[in-house]
Amino acid sequence: MRGFFTLMKMNMKLLLRNKGFLFFLCFAPVLSAAILSIKTDMALFEQKASQNKIIELESCENKVIYNCDDTSKFIIKVYDGSKTKLSEYLLNRFAAAGMFSVCRSDVREMTEKQVEEQAKKDAFDDRAGALLYIRKDFDEAVWDGSYQDALVIYQVSDDERRQYFISEISDVLVQMHAVAESAADDPDKTAEFLADISDKMPQKHVVNLSGKDVELTREQGNWKALIGYAYAIITLGFLFCGVCIAYTVIEEQNNKVYTRAMLSRLDVWGYFCSKFVMVVFISIVQTFLLGICVFGIHGGEFGMNRFIFLFMILCLGLVFGTLSFMLGVLLGDVMSANYAVFTLWSISALLSGLYFPLDTAAPAIRAASSLMPQHWFLKAAELFLAGEKGGYAIVFYVTAAYLILCVSVGGVGLKMKRSDV
Question: How far is CA 263 from CA 259, 366, 418, in A?
């Protein structure tokens, strides 16, 4: 145990003499807090919201593949024979969901037979995932609960998302009918109901493809974007502080300190734990410095509880501090470790969605994004911002999973280094 504390004391002295370590230790928290103090409307969030709208086609013969906003979404071509507030609300629900691209054509002057012929043509000549015909008497059918008479769905794709599309249509129609029934006792309420249906129906929600439906206001979306930028900066500080700890390991190996430590009663895992405790200590120090800055900027108000935010930062520091320490141990060279850490920071921040949303990205990119720790910490922040449950579970499980992986690989790497000495 004496050797354990002796190593820690000696390493802390070395770190405090390292100007680069002191720079990242202090600069990253200050810059992260400064980003959180920005009071502006984030253009990325506004741009994302503006894309989730109904796309109007000049004619039903127009191809949706040339007009949709994102070909990676499930494309719905709509033949709207009603063009009422009810049909508008139905289509807006799908457009706002984020995973659908809704293209609508006005077919009020066409007969149902003509629409059917056009649908048969589009099934072969276009690339829509589903074709939806909203009949002329859509409002009356919804009012009476005759859902089969309200619309027609032409399934022209084997895409698995069509099941969600059909399920969502059923849910919205049931909600509409339930609101209509509440006004059934008073015929005079019919016109009022049709006039302000959007105010009576439940508010739209954003579909999170991770499996959790989260509703964020515009302000909360802005906070989420700022938190993502703060994550990117503080992560850089954690990574390079971890490299500085790895530097002590490399120096001890070069100066035979590691060999002398192994000849004493201190084993490999005890030696590794002494370094891991330093990672924990430095993560706490950086989180504490960030907390001082956050509490001093506008009272630290940025959409969520300040202590929850600092708890996420601490867990993020444990993950990335241990990860960079592991890379330094495995590479065995300070310069190589610096290159690897900077590359890891750049790619992981980009793929995790810290700079811009990846909800509409290709499936391969979204799969790669789910491997990045920042992706899940940002999802947890989203849940905390919306006041939903599950944020603590995400933070705990992701932190535990990455720590187990990094500690295991780092311990094996130290054993390999010992065999080489």
Answer: 6, 48, 11
